[in-house]
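Shipment paperwork, digital attachment
Item: protein structure file
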Amino acid sequence: METNIAGSTGEPKLYDAEILQEFFSLTLDLLCIADLEGKFIRVNEAWSDILGYSSSDLVNKSFLDFVHPDDLQSTLDAIADLTNSKQVLSFVNRYRSSDGTYRHIEWRANPKGNLIYAAARDVTDRISRETELKRRDRLFREIEAITVTGGWEYTVETSEMFWTRELYHIHEMNPDDEVDRIGDSIACYMPEDRPVISNAFQECVRNGTPYDLEFRIKTVKGNFRWIRTKTEAIQADGVIKRVIGTVVDVTTYKELEHELEKDRARLENIILGTNVGTWEWNVQTGETVFNERWAEISGYTLDEIRPVSIETWMHFAHPDDLEASNRQLQEHFEGKRDFYDFESRMKHKNGHWVWVLDRGKVVSWLPDGRPLWMMGTHQDITDRKRMEDELRLAKQEAELANKAKSQFLANMSHEIRTPLNGVIGFAELLKTMDLEKFAQEYVEYINVSGQNLLNIINNILDFSKIEADMMVWENERTDFINLLENALDMVKYAASTKKIELLLNINPSVPRFIKTDAIRLTQILVNLLSNAVKFTDKGEVELRAEAVISENKQARITLQVRDTGIGITKDQRAKLFKVFSQADSSTTRRFGGTGLGLAISQMIAQAMGSDIEFTSKPAVGSTFSMTIQAEIESTKNNEDEVKLPIKRCLIVDDNMVNRTILERNLSHAGIDCITCENGLDALKVLEKADDIDVLLCDYHMPYVDGLETVRMIRNNLGMSSSDLPVILMHSSSDDTTLHDQAKEVGIRCFLTKPVKMSQLSTCLGGFSYAEGGEKALDGTCRSDSDEFMQYIVDNKETPARVKILIAEDHPMNLIMIKALLQKIMPDAVLKTAQTGVETVEYVKSSPPDLIFMDVHMPEMDGLEATRAIRTFELDQHLNHIPIVALTAGALKEERELCFEAGMDDFLSKPVEINKLTAILEEYLKKT
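Attachment content:
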């Protein structure tokens, strides 16, 4: 090896070898000679000391075998430079030691001929120190940025100032710009703070006095910040050499501190404003903190009750309240209550008890789950408790007064209806007698007056019940078409006396059966119709019904009552739905009324989920409307609908609206219609048309009335009753001789206006076709009461065995009920009893087929008598006897009491003959 080295230089071999050997042994650094392929030729002893390799471990080994894999590429690049005869200076890589660890080695290498001479130094410790310094510097910068803390150093001897980068950021300065660190920072101080800061700095420089200050600065960008600066003087040999300081941006903390102060002040004001005492309690130690107000509630100052503890509260608390208070506290501790909230009594300094609302919550817990600190308030609620006691007494008094009012209403209803029962009942009887015309009119006036008085009483009683929240609402299956027809029937007579046309306009979309409160809905409609008739002097009143059906069997039904009356001015509208008021005083004088009707109707409508709305024009008329939502019980208008044997109909009526209604309804039934507004036009139509099956003609028409029109058809056109059947529409007030005159011209079917489709269908269904196309009329339509009367006539033997017991203590009412029953069922056996005891004894001796039971009777009232009869029936295994309540009481509660006692039905006084007939039909057909 020595020979090769010497040969390469051309110098004497021995001399070169000796020098080289001396050089290799003297240096502490790593020395090596390698060929251009990177194989070691010679190494010195330092390799063994530093990396642990002997010469034999390395010679002829590749240099690259010991390089860290991550440094291999950079090392290959360095060897490539050497191969190209370039020197490599300060190249560092990681080199493997004999123990497998890696050391950082810094290389300097120089190629010469075919050899590479390299010297290396172990820089592992230096690299570690540099890495640590970089890490510390990075950490310092990160901490500085996170804490927004800058640093500075002032050298006293040179007056030089050094800033960290974060300090520049705090002042919103650029670290790369030329900055007068002293002058520019002073410029950022508020003028009022500069003297304080300057004095503190000078004192620190001269005497080494540190300072810690907070003040505001205005950055170079004009933003205000709060900073905190702390300094310390560095001395050497008793002389101050440097001053170092930190600057922290405390803007956020100052803002939070300011908000906290505001919140604290706000809380103090709230506590002061609510006048509550506050308390804090260490649940484990019993330590407590009270404010002054806590003591004041009991009449003390805080100083007077010191030292305070939980025992202080125990001392003031009422003994009877402690158990419940402790129980609620425990529930709060166990998480069963979010808050502790307890009303208790505390002993006042003057000896009386004050009520406090004690509220609190645990705000901190021990690691084992036990409560530690609890905070809360004490509020003096003595006045509130006193008011509650007063309200409780007032409520009891109000309930007693309300009960008395209910009893008064029941008594008033009974006392008023009892004489009305006689007035209306006997008037009904007189109407059926053969009286002279003027007497019949007087009787009708008595009956109408009685009915009007009854309506007024009902309104007053209903208003009282609504105000007392005693009204009970029903939702029962209702024949809605029948309800609309009956509502019009109730105002039919009043309309006919004023010669006002009544129109019933029911759209075919309206379902026949729905679920609703039929009584209350009828009450609204009758009220609206009565008002319409009352305030209309001429023209017409129309009841209109339309429906929109949804898929879920719900109907949205709109009801309208339209009139051509006096109308309502804008000034009058505000009073319309107010109780005890009408549009103006002149209306009251002219038309009368209590002013309750519309107000009650609106209350009922709103309880049904609707509102009564209206449009009106003075001297033109008004329209009142409401919309109800109801469940449909049947989607058909007529469940027994049959095909009518009529194809074409001629309608003659001077009222355009009525013509339209009739045409639409008949068209819906599949009948083609032709309409005329007078009799002369009807003659012209009949002269040209030979396919008219029936004539539907109004009696009251201008120029030529209905009778004269039919007479001309018979005489001038030669059309007999078989050729052209006629249905005559007329008013209920028309002269009774009208029927006789009509029969003379071949009219056999009559309909009272407003025309009901059920009755019209019955009339039309009575026509049949004989052979050869001749038309004939089978009969006329008949009302429900007529059918029952016919049932009585057809079963003459049945009434003779019917025995009816009337239990009534009022002589006049007894006479009236007997007269009505004799009128309806002349062959029935009528028995009477004047007390409940007599009634029960009669039933035991000779059970009747039907009992009309007065509720209010001496010795034993009707309810008790009914219960006794039901017990007797049960004991003796007798058949059930129908018992119908007969009472002047009209309240819902009385009706319910009757049913609870075992009665089957309820008939309120004054007794109406049609309702009495319906009762007889219901229960005697079952007999």
